[in-house]
Amino acid sequence: MRDYLLTLCVTAAVTYLLTGPVRKFAIATGAMPEIRARDVHREPTPRLGGIAMFFGLCAGLLVADHLQNLNSVFELSNEPRALLSGAALIWIIGVLDDKFEIDALIKLGGQMIAAGVMVMQGLTILWIPVPGIGTVSLTSWQGTLLTVALVVITINAVNFVDGLDGLAAGMVCLAAAAFFLYSYRIWYGYMIEAAAPATLFTAILMGMCLGFLPHNMHPARIFMGDSGSMLIGLVLAAAAISVTGQVDPDALKIFEGSTRQATHAALPVFIPLLLPLTIIAIPVADLVLAIVRRTWNGQSPFAADRGHLHHRLLEIGHSHSRAVLIMYFWSALIAFGVVAYSVHSASMWIVLAIVALSAVGLVLLLLPRFTPRAPRWAEAFVPPRYRRRTVQSEPAAVPALAYGAETPEAPEERAPVAVGAPGVNGVNRVHGVNGATAIGPRSRFPDGRKAGTRG
Predict the structure, then answer these.
(1) Alpha-carbon gap, residue 404 to 422, rounded angstroms
(2) Which helix (H) or strand (E) holds 2?
(3) CA 97, CA 107: separation in Å to the nearest integer?
(4) How far apart are CA 227 and CA 413, in angstroms?
(5) pTM: predicted TM-score of the whole model, two decimal places
(6) CB 49 within 8 A of CB 215
(7) Euclidean distance between the first and final Cα of the chain, in Å?
(8) What's CA 65's distance to the chain center, in Å?
(9) CA distance 109 to 151
(10) Residues 271-297: b if buried by 16+ CB within 10 A, e if exposed
(11) pLDDT tens for residues 2-42?
(12) Cβ-contact 338, 279 below 8 angstroms
C-alpha cells in the first residue's frame, strides 16, 4: 500500500505543478474557445488541462517502474506499455481537438484506433464469467470487439459528463477509488498477480484527478478539455478491462464444486468483473439518455445540447456547486455500494445502508422545491443562501453635485441643485453648494474664486 500511495502522490504533485504553466500556455496559444450555447461558464476559460494530466500519468508509471514492489508489474505484464501507447494517441487527438475542434467522427475513429493499439499489445478481454454457465473464453475477434466497445463507451461517457467545473475529475476519481479497493483486494487478498496492473492504473488515475481538481473546482481556472476527459476515460477503461478480462474467476477458488456452481455462487464477488460500467453508471446513463434524446429529436447522436443530467440539475434550481456535489454523491453511492456488496453480499446492513443513502440522495435532489433555513445559532456555519434574510432600508439617494463643486460637511446640509437656471447671454448656470455656480464645466464662488481651490 505504501508504494501505491507514493505513486499516487507523485502523480498528483506533477499534475498539480504543471497545470499552472499549461494554463499560461493555453492562453498564449489561443486555446480559449468562445462561450457556446450549451456552456454554463460566463467567461472564456483555457483548455488543454489534459497536457498536465498526461505528464502526471507518465510520472506515475516512471516512479512505479523504479519501486521494488511494483516493478514486477512491468516485468511480468505488457499492460503498462499498452496503456501508455493508447493514452499517448488519445491524448494527441484530444489536444488537437481542444485547439482546432476536430469533427466528432474523426475523434470516434481515433478512439477506436487507440483501443486497437492497446489490444495489439495485450490489453484485451480474454474471458468473461457468465452466471449459470461459468467462465467463457473469447476468440480473438470477440475479445477485440468487446474491448474496443468498452473503451469507446467509457471515453465518451466521461466526455459527456464533463460539463461542470470539477465534475468529470471528481466522478472519475471516485470510480477509480472504488476500483482500487476492489483490485487491491483481489491482488493481495487472493494473491492473484493479474490484478496488479489494474491496481496500479487506478492509483495513478486517482493522482491525475486529485492533482487537477484544485485548478478545476468552481470557478474553474482551466478546463481539462477533450485531451483530459478522453485520457482519464481511457485509463479507467483500461483498469476495467485488466480486471475483467485478465483475472480468471476459477483462480479465486472460494467455492467448491463445478465451474458453473462456483461462478453462480460467487456472483456477488464477480459483480465489478461482470459489470464494470456500474462504477461509472452515472456517466453511462447520461450517455445513453443523450443518444436516445438526440435520435428521438432527429439530431445526430454527437450533436451537443443542454439536456445532460448536470444541466437538468441546474434548471430545477440547484446551484453549480450543489449540482456537482449531488453527482458526486450518486457516483460514490453506486461505486462503493457495488464494491461493498461484492465483499459482504450476505450482510443486510449493506443493503439497508444503500437504501437509506438513496433516500438521502432523493431528498437532496428535491432541495430546490423548498427553501430550508438554518436556525439563527447555526447561521455562521452554513452558506449564506440558508440564512434568514432581513430586509434593510436603503439610504436615500443623494443628488449629484455639479462638476468641480466642493463636498459639504454632511449629506443633509446640501443645498438643492438647480439645473438649467438662466444665466448671462443665454448661458445656463448650475447652482451648487454655498452659492457656487457652474458655467459650463467650471464652477465659481460669489467672491470669484474657482470651486475646489483653497482660499
Answers:
(1) 20
(2) helix 2-29
(3) 8
(4) 64
(5) 0.72
(6) yes
(7) 81
(8) 29
(9) 12
(10) bbbbebbbbbbbbbbbbeebeeebeee
(11) 999 999 999 999 999 999 999 999 999 888 866 655 555 56
(12) yes
